[in-house]
Amino acid sequence: MDNLISSKIDHKNIGLVKTLYQLRQDLDVYCLIAVNAGRMHQKNIGKCFFGYVQQLSIISIALGICKIFENETRNELNSISGVLRHIINTASSKLNHKKLDEFIQKYDGSSNNNDTISALSSTVTGFVKKYNKELEAFKTFRDKKVAHSEYRFETDSLPSFDVMEKLFNFGLDFYSLVSENLVRVVPCNLNAKRNVKFDLKGILEKLGLEEIKMEMK
Prior knowledge:
Blueprint: H1 8-42, H2 47-69, H3 80-90, H4 97-106, H5 116-130, H6 132-146, H7 161-183, H8 195-206
Helix pairs in contact: 1-2, 1-3, 1-7, 1-8, 2-6, 2-7, 4-5
C-alpha cells in the first residue's frame, strides 16, 4: 500500500479531524463567553442567551472529547484508537522515525527505534492513562447527563479548560502525524482559522461590548 490517500486510514483520519474541528469551535465559543461573562452581565448583553449557548458548548465539548478518545472495540471508529488500530494492522512500517520521535518526545513517550508502532502505541496509551480521571469525568457526564437523564445524578465539576485544550492538542497532533507521515498530505491547521471565534467577537462588539478578551488567562 504505497499510496494511502483514500485508504481506510485516510478516511478514518478525516473523520477524526472533523470531530477535532467541531471541538475547536466549541472550545472557542465556551472560552469567549467565559472570559467576557462578567462584563456581559454588567451591560446586560444577552445573559440568558449566551449562558444557554455556553451550556450547549459544554455538552458538545464532552461529546467531542469522548468521540476522539473512545476505544475501538466492536464498531469501527474515527477515534485515535480506531486510526491507530488500522495503522497497526496495515501500515506500521510506513511511519517516519523523525516525525514520530518528535511526537513521542513531546508527549513523554518511550522511543523504540526498532519498533515504531510500539513506540506510538505506548505514547498514546501513556497519555490516555495520564488523563484517565478527566476522560472518565467526560464519559460519565455524557452517559448520565447528556445521553440519558439519570435519576439523582449530580453533575460534578468537569475538568478545567486547560485540560480540554491539552486533550484537543494531543488529538490534533496525532491527526497531523498520520496525515504528514502516512497519508502524505498537508494536515488541516485547526489553530490557524478560528472563524467562529472571530464571528462571535464581532457579534459581541455590535452588541456594545468593548475590549473583548480572547483567551483564558
